[in-house]
Amino acid sequence: MTGDRRPLLSRAAHDRAHLARSLPDPARGRPVRVLTVDPQRTVPVQEGPSGPALVWDERPELPLGAVFLGEADGVPYAAVRGERSLTVNGRPVDSWAGLRDIGADLGDLDAGLLAEAIGILEWHERHRFSPLTGEATTVERAGWTQRDPSTGVEFFPRTDPAVIMLVHDGGDRVVLGRQAVWPPGRFSILAGFVEPGESAEAAVAREVEEEVGLRVTDIRYVASQPWPFPQSLMLGFVARADGEQEIRVDPTEIEEARWFTRDELRAPDGRLAIPPSISIARHILDLWVAGEL
Questions:
Q1: Could you read off the pLDDT of 85-114 as tens digits, one per residue?
Q2: Max Cα separation, the chain?
Q3: Distance between terminal CA atoms of the chain?
Q4: How many CB atoms lie within 10 A of CB 128?
Q5: Claim to verify: residue 50 and residue 91 sit in the same structural domain
Q6: Is the peptide bond before 149 cis (omega within 30 degrees of 0)?
Q7: Which residues share a beta bridge with 242?
Q8: Which contacts qualify for 127-130: CB closer than 8 Å, 24 or more apart?
């Protein structure tokens, strides 16, 4: 493990500058670096000696329809929907890639800006009309609010809380499950959405019992990570279950679940496919395997 215990998509090196969103010009007259996100949620990437980097378009001002993301080192950043191209402001584009593809390999600044850009643009795509009147909303505050033109009611970006939990037996075993739609051999820790009026800890206990029939105790928070596919915040926990309990899988939730040992998770033979490094599931699993949870 490295000294940085943050999940990869929780990294950020910019100031969201939320107070500037209410200004007529959030960039305050400065040139803006703008990231284009295409309809497939991919962005322009250039490969370099230290890995991939986002290709930003240098604009003299904040473009119409762009969402202000914040600033870093005095440079404003923004994101806008657009189409793919071979170059961006004269700079060649090596590929167009998504957050899942390159998020783990980007530097902290690009990673944090990309996660924010995908999340806020997804919100705009899915909430273009007022839930009160059905009218098309107007976008305000540099892309951070929408307003119903008839009632004047403001709508703010929403995030759906979800819990993701590593269930262990207090010793050397952990419960992993798999969904039928996953590739063969893929297993991960359990997860589910928080319901209205429910605490995150209560959601952990409920989801584990629903999915695998186990009752858990000693529920402890580990870390969180944005997961803008489209608008979730993953709240990571560990919980303990008596290993003598019988696993009873709910087939509507998962296809298979069983206990795995640390040695099985360390095995390099490829028989067990665990989540990729970009996910908080892998982050929590790595901490547990290393004996840090």
A1: 999 999 999 999 999 999 999 999 999 999
A2: 65
A3: 12
A4: 11
A5: yes
A6: no
A7: none
A8: 127/155, 127/158, 130/155
Q: Does pTM surpass 0.85? A: yes
Domain range holding 147? 131-157
Point out which residues pair with 151 in neighbouring strands: none
pLDDT tens digits along 258-280: 999 999 888 766 567 888 999 99
User: How many angstroms from the chain centroid is the CA of residue 218?
Assistant: 26
Q: Are residues 121 and 186 in the same domain?
A: no
Amino acid residing at 26? P
Q: Residue 230: is the preceding peptide bond cis (ω within 30°)? A: yes
Do β-strands 154-155 and 138-140 pair in parallel, antiparallel, or remain unpaired?
unpaired
Question: Residue 18 and residue 27: Cα distance in Å, rounded?
Answer: 12
Residues 105 and 152 reside in one and the same domain: no
**Taking a C-beta distance cutoff of 8 angstroms, is the pair 85, 93 a contact?**
yes
